[in-house]
Amino acid sequence: MSRKGKVMVAMSGGIDSTVAALMLHHEGYDVVGITMKTWDYAGSGGSKKETGCCNIDSFQDARQAAVHHGFPHYILDIREEFGDFVIDNFVEEYIAGRTPNPCVMCNTHIKWRALLKRANALDCDFIATGHYASVYRHTNDRMVIKKGLDETKDQSYVLWGLSQELLQRTMMPLGQYRKTEIRQMALDMGYEELSKKSESYEICFVPDNDYRGFLKRRVKGLEEKVNGGWFVNKNGEKLGKHKGYPFYTIGQRKGLEIALGKPAYVTSIDPDSNTVVLGDEDDLNENVMDVAKINWMKYDHITPGMEADTKIRYKTPAALSHLFPLGNNIRVQFYENIKSIAPGQSAVFYEGDDVIGGGIIQRGELVLS
User: Exposed, middle or buried by CB within 10 Å (0-12, 13-18, 19+), for 50?
Assistant: First the structure.
């Protein structure tokens, strides 16, 4: 047994998780590799060939790296756990007129807990992943997620839901590196093909990136139930027929298939009446939103009016705001108007590079001062 301890590393077969495992191995940890099968592509009904983290090639790449460096590797089948929660939530949120974030749900409720359960069974001290973020212990003794050094790859946004219990055992060795450095490490370690391997940005269980098609296949009779609803303006006046409210998202402009003589954007969705509200770009402006299902990370509570940088979308820059407790929820007041606040997406609060906490957006609105 290594003095540094035993660590279970989630290995997808991609460059990041492979380099993370090999870094820890070279640092003297006893490494156990584990690859999680979350989804069966054969049952997805999509048109695209298997890609990403759940195909046989990825499993083989992860296993070969482990065998080559002399540490054990296992494949963990969590399809049932994943499907029951992540996929069901994904479908339910769209049916409710919201825009889900399945990666957050998977990290928060499935992946980390599945890892920890198996880590305990194999007497591992830690679990580790190839995320571009860091974990550290704050002076108040709480564990905190910190942004990755590489701002273009930072993944702290999708990790806001991790509990203190999970963070106590978590390592993220790539947080202090840039992607270019990780590619060079893979090359230096003799993994030339891996260093050139492309990345997938798709939802893992929607391999053809067609979530509308996935919903139609997943919910029997969905298209018949929602087809033929109305596009309306903010005054409720009918503008034309749409293909069903679950197939649209807040801020969407392309693919509406309606001609109004000017650009139109989805500004809100009403599942009860199967209507999709269209407006101008300015109608997307909002400066207040409510956030529920809060998980505090850096602090166990906040003072009313606390200033924070709030991020409402993975690829959208954070915006300066004030946070106000509202029962079990948080009301976020932005300094300036922001666009396309989408219920169902995650809101993550930052103090500098540290994640204060996060939650699920319930609604947004424009409040005139």
Answer: middle
Measured CA to CA, the distance from residue 74 to residue 92 in angstroms comes to 32
235 and 134 in a common domain: no
Residue 163 and residue 274 in one domain: no
Please identify every residue annotated as catalytic.
106, 204
Instruction: Return the beta strands (E) in 297-353 as ranges.
Output: 306-311, 319-326, 329-339, 346-351
Which amino acid, residue 103?
A: C
Q: Evaluate whether 241 touches 231 at the Cβ level (below 8 Å).
A: yes
pLDDT per residue as tens digits for the range 275-298: 999 999 999 999 999 999 999 999
pLDDT of amino acid 60: 85
Range of the domain at 305: 283-365
How far apart CA 168 and CA 185 sit, in angstroms, is 27
pTM for this entry? 0.92
Is there a single domain that holds both residue 13 and residue 31? yes
